[in-house]
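Honest question from a wet-lab person: if I give you the sequences of every part of a complex, can you actually get the arrangement of the whole thing, not just the pieces? Trying it with mine:
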Amino acid sequence: MIKTENLCKTFRTEEVETSALSNVNLEIKKGEFVAIMGPSGCGKSTLLNIIGLLDNPSQGNFRFIENEVSHYSEKQRTKLRKENIGFVFQSFNLIDELSVYENVELPLIYQKVPAVERKLKVNEVLKRVQIENRSKHFPQQLSGGQQQRVAIARAVVANPNLILADEPTGNLDSANGNEVMNLLSQLNDEGTTIVMVTHSSSDAERASRIIQLFDGQIVSENNKSKIATPANAVSFL
Amino acid sequence: MFFNNLKIAYRNLIRNKGYSFINISGLAIGMACTILLLLWVNHELNFNNFHKEVDRIYQVANYQTWNGTKNAMPNLPTPLIDAIKEKYPEIEYATHYNAWGENLLVEYKGKKQYENIKSADPDFFKIFNFPLIYGNMETCLNDINSLIISEKAAKRIFGEENPIGKIVNVDNRQPLVITAVTENIPSNSSIKFDFLIPFEMMRKQNPYSENWSSHNYFGYAKIAKGTDITSLNKKLDQFYIDHVDKESEKYAFLFPITKVHLYNLDGNPTKITQVKMFFMIAIFILIIACFNFMNLSTARAAKRAKEIGLKKAIGATYTQLIKQFMGESLLITIVAANFAIILSHLFLPQFNLLMSRQLVIDYSSLEFWLIIFAVTIFTGLVAGAYPAFYLSSFNPIMVLKGTFSGGKGSNRFRRTLVVIQFILASTLLISTLTIVLQTKYLANMDVGLNKDNVISVNVNQQMRDKIETIKNELSSSYLIENVSYSSHIPYTVFSNGWGENWEGKDPNFHPLITYPYVDVDFFDVFKIKFIKGRPFNVDNPAADSSCVIINEKLAKMISKESVLDKMIHSNSEDLRIIGVVKDYHCTPNTRKLQPFMLRLCHDPNYLFIRYAEGNSMKAVHEIERICSKYNPDFPLIYQFLDDNYNNMYENQRATVSTLLYASIFAIIVSCLGLFGLASFNAEERTKEIGVRKVLGASMQQLIIIFSKDFSKWIVIASLISWPITYFAMEQWFVNYPFRIDFPFWLFLAVFILLLMIAIITVGYQSWKSATQNPIKSLKYE
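Yes, you can. This is the full assembly:
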């Protein structure tokens, strides 16, 4: 599903050039649950942004569902992104002016799904994350755990091939965090590919594979073989 | 998606009530000012356009040459209109048009009222589109004793009765039959009348005007369909030479009626300058309001950043976001436009009073809605474009990671906008105050004659016959110091000649000389000083009937040495100079000082009565008593000369007041924006304020820190506005021969005023932040 070859990302300011990722080779297969770990500033989020088609790499190849996307324009990336990827963020990023229902509906609107179908899908997903009784509430009226459940609902409502979760439990207490992780595991069990950036070892334990990043490079991989991974999927550089 | 965006916009408006209020009220005030000014601009630009086939209607005018300069004049010799109609088939219809009299006493069944009566030829109704309520426009001006009245006048005199066939008496001597009633004349008509008689009547009464050298009447013409006006004007250019006098230096021409309100007959701008100025001001105010919107929208960008980032992440395209934000600003503009319409409706009566117009908002007219549509779209696009592009270009990675900040670029942009707002406000205010000072200067300027405590009384034929008796009886009253009579009000004499000659005069020099007629006491009544010579002989005025008294300016033209006893040849008479008076303004002081010569008056139009100070009303009663004795059939028409003089500046005062209001609104709208920005700034700097307080900053120090930034902007705006204003006003002053020195002190005064307003505006927010408990602000952060 995702394959990177010698992926590099460099940030340039007027005086400094910082290498955020260097020569990352990574393959993620459909149905995998991959956790990316590492200290702050090691390039986890940069990698997640590139995988999420929010950013282009500076060098290297990146194949996403059979497409070489490293040189895709913003418009092409947007199209691919909205059809295939759902996002879950540490700070939930729900739109304060929209209700729970309207927040979840938003990706479907951008995909031009007809209203009747939207209603069915949103209600179904809200039921799945057990927040249907709060559908008319606004984000500020919900607890952190509830907000993240809404964010997950929004991420999965369009039935994406891939969910990218950036420290999804980072702002939650352990009980709520657990609940969110249960949801993600459940989604993975149902066949959705998940790539999660996390600082939490216990959250990472839920993944089928843990990738450690350090200074922009993959330094280790712990394959729990929930789904078989090709032996050369990760190269140590 | 549209409804989704609408919901977000609506909820944003509701949630941020303060900002919404500032945004909407700023835009509404700005748009209301613009709508009112544009209504006026539209009204002025469409003067005379209500006539059918208006592009075929022209004012007949001519160029007259003095001193080698061609001057475009509307006054025509009487025979011209008939002659050009006869000679040029391209001229389909032509009419004279003139006042028969400004104060003619119209009497019907004992009800008397002075009225302004105009005169025209039968072609008048074929040229102009003044629909009749009663009567036949083909025949209504045919009979010499006809009178056409307006609907307004008909209601006033006859109530609801049909006035056709009724007879009114004019000036107690002329019975006229009402043959038609016109609909009321639109306010944007250059030709305005309530009473109209056949020109034939004037012709009959003034047979002496039938010569080619007396220019007393206006004329209009309608040209045939398909006529090329340029070639017709070429023919008219030769008219005087071909048909009147081979040596003539006069040239007839036609000037479009659509332009007469806006331009001089020579094509030089007149009213159009004011129209352009007010149009610019309308746009200025709208831009200031738009800048507020842009400022507040971009300042609050951080609040919208999460929404933008998220939407981008889940698939919103750049174009979709631009559409969303443009739509949002259009929505706010539409809300503001509704308030603007209400405000315009509420303030229209005051605005009309200010502009001396009777503008009405015709809600069924396409024009009005086009203005509203144009203003709304312009505002929505100008105000919304930058924020839309700015917000839509946010990097979603930074936004979603929470590392986004508004950016230095946008801060600089906001500052630039505030500076531009204050440049406009400062320029407008300094210019307005300069115009106020100039108008005040002209109104209070010493024009060389003393017009305080003087009453002028209109003299009719009945009074004219007994003028000396009336004068003597008035003079004998203890309430009255002095009495004089004259042909003109002394500072509005537009009676000129250029055929005067004197010994040693350059034959190519043809100055335009003004000649008012006065009596022997004129100089005492107006306290006019003599430089040389003497006034007319009081005891034997007849002895001075061939004498003139001139002013300094004419004396200098005649000779560098003494001019006393020199002769001026004028209209086949030789006139001896017996005195030279100090220059005074015989025309309004918006014009240059004119050379003039005073002659003894036999046919006075005005009596001037200097009354004892503090006795104005008593004097009026005394004048009424004496005049009614000799003029029993006519009510007295009088006015205080200082009021009359002040009225000359009414138009200018209206302009000044409008400018003043426009400046005030520009400042209010600018300050609304400043207030919004200051509160945003205070919100953003809560943590900084907390830290500073913990470290020991006093409230005053904090307020200074806050106000410093804003004050800097006012300084920059003022420095930029000063040279702009100076050069603009110097251009404006070119039209005034008598002017004030540029009031540089206004720069400082306006700067201090704007600074104070800004500090007060910002001060509240600064004070609120500075007095907050630092623990709270740090905790909040």
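Two things worth pointing out. The CA atoms of residues 384 and 654 of chain B lie 35 Å apart. Chain B touches chain A through 25 residues (CB under 8 Å).
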